[in-house]
Amino acid sequence: MRLAxxxxxxxxxxxxxxxxxxFPALNGASDARTLVVxxxxxxxxxxxxxxGFQKANPxxxxxxxxxxxxxxxxxxxxETDAGKGTADIAFxxxxxxxxxxxxxxxxxxxxxxxxxxxxRWANWRDTAYxxxxxxxxxxxxxxxxxxxxxxxxxxxxxxxxxxxxxxVYGRIATYDIERSGVGFMFMAxxxxxxxxxxxxxxxxxxxxxxxxxxxxxxxxxxxxxxxxLGYNILGSYAADWAARNPDVGIVLPKDYTVVMSRIGLVPAxxxxxxxxxxxxxxxxxxxxxxxxxxxxxxxxxxxxxxGENTANRMQEVLGxxxxxxxxxxxxMVYLDQVKRSRVIERWNEALRNP
Length: 354
Hints:
The chain is an alpha/beta fold. Helices cover 42% and strands 20% of the residues. It is built from 13 helices and 16 strands. The strands form two sheets. Strands 1, 2, 3, 4, 5, 6, 7 and 14 form an eight-stranded mixed beta sheet that branches. Strands 8, 9, 10, 11, 12, 13, 15 and 16 form an eight-stranded mixed beta sheet that branches. It is globular and about 65 Å long.
């Protein structure tokens, strides 16, 4: 028993493991300064952004640490509190945790050339910046909908599951809100936007919904036809899969479409905050946002960037259908463990007893 307890304590004390990718300075200098990035964006996806940054800063090497969103938060807090110094920039899809870092003094103000022109909803006190525009979408297997269109609203989604539930039992998927921060945030927004959201959850439970913590696990199964529908899937990953898999289709829900953003900030204890701000500035620039829109398939926020894959264009076409999540302390509501536990308990109850 003592050995088991000791082993558990040792495991808890080990820092979260990151997938680390090092990009040497383009000028070949062995003593180049190094920008340290903590990010929840997969390194292969982030590569074009890093390459663009390094072209503009050939004397800077980049250490890119790919982490889960909770691990980013935990490491920034733990390293700051220990006086060790931490990443130069933290970039995460966990909007609530990023805002909590800023609100609790773990991020520093970054006054940048674009700060005043950045959309008001996407800038909190020049400290936490929304850098992407990513809708929550329905994803579907196109060959499974040759004879009828896929659901385009939550009401249609429920009707489809009620009429076709037996045929597609076990072939519907969404995020596991207990393990996916993005999934929980989408569910929290659904509660605010759709009074009858629990009817959707019960219908998915009756249809044998499968739950996953990552987008890739769901999209892979939709692409090969094992699943027919995915609910509230992060649109950026869906667009990337759809670009490579002709059988993957995307619907932006017509009743309303929640839009989340990845937030970038420079931690208060950054070892090289000037490099962090330089990277943040590139990420906000028209050049960086264009690279993101074209190569990462993630819509640009910068109002100066034109084209189809931009917040401006999406707002022109869809207008009030889009419900972007503002960067504000309101995001921290569901970090309250009591409220969070109540939502998860009701979620599990609805899935178990449809």
